[in-house]
Amino acid sequence: MKAISKNRKAVREALAQEGWRFSVVSSSEEFSEHRNACRMLTLPSGGESDCRVRSIRERLLRPIPWELRSWSFPRWLSYVSKSARKRLQNHLPIAAEFCLTHGFIFLVGDVWAERVNGRWRVHRDDAPAVILEDREIYFWRGWQVSKETIVNKPTVERIISEENQTHREVLLQRMGVEKFMQEADLKSVDTFRESVLLKVDTAAKRGTWRDGKWMEVPLQLAFIKVTCPSTQKDYFLRVDPEVETAKRALESTLPAYRRDWERDLVAET
Asked: Is the entire prediction scored with pTM above 0.85?
């Protein structure tokens, strides 16, 4: 759903009574021109607003790329009164700067998000999640990714050949573990009862010390195949690729289980 919509007029009206100069822009190029041409100041936290609690939308903007927001903390919010902040929420600026000539410069745009377990994150399934006048930024469940990762159809070949770990994870989520397992040529590494540890190499490399020397080895994707004792249906769970045995892989899927899981599993079956 669209969480923040671009509306320069609404931003101006919400801030009209705040008593300081400001400009509103909707393109990243214009925002950068202000930053490069004007004398910018990094402001300390102000004391105008009596509300220190960040709203859902204010927290939502944290993953916005650093080159846009520049401040790790949105300090301009502490210069805005509580009533103005409330009016701003549906059209909250994505980023802000402060210069001696123009005062505050606000960048506005459209932002899409989803809610999961009571928390919001920037996300859009098949289109850019942040849209400016001259730029589109793609997000998947709070992670910034490339356009190709969101728009192009995920395939086994693309997932295995992808070197960026975040992009590879997003492609795998889009494709689905079940479908990936059906189409990928995974190798059986170890078994424990009916469970099977499966792995496949990817194009990404990692350094490791082996046989007395440092070497580059392929980064792997690892899954443990488990069978439901009631329905006999197979399920595939992601596990740490460093795991070497199926038993250890099973244990890693039960991090908070303190009892004898092996005994309980036998009792259940």
From this structure: no
Reading the block at residue 186, the tokens are 């995974």
Give CA separation, 200 vs 66, 141, 221, 223, 236, in Å.
35, 25, 5, 9, 14
Q: Which domain holds residue 219?
A: 180-268
Closest residue by Cα to residue 174 from 194, 156, 196? 156
Domain contains 105 = yes
45-64 exposure pattern, b = at least 16 Cβ within 10 A, e = fewer: eeeebeeeeeeebeebbebb
**Measured between alpha carbons, how far apart are the two ends of the chain, in Å?**
44
From residue 18, alpha-carbon distances to 24, 79, 196, 249 in Å are: 15, 9, 64, 58
- State whether 20 and 97 are in the same domain: yes
Domain count, the chain: 2
Query: Which residue's entry shows tokens 């009164």?
Result: 81
Residues 73-131 have pLDDT tens digits of 567 888 888 889 899 999 999 988 888 888 899 999 999 999 988 889 999 999 999 99
Residue type, 102: H
Whether residue 172 lies inside any domain: the answer is no
38 HSE (CA, 13 A, CB side): 19
Task: Tell me whether strands 130-131 and 110-116 are parallel, antiparallel or unpaired.
Answer: antiparallel
pLDDT in tens, 168-177: 989 999 998 8
Has residue 61 been placed in a domain?
Answer: yes
Which two structure tokens, joined as six digits, stand for 177? 């573990």
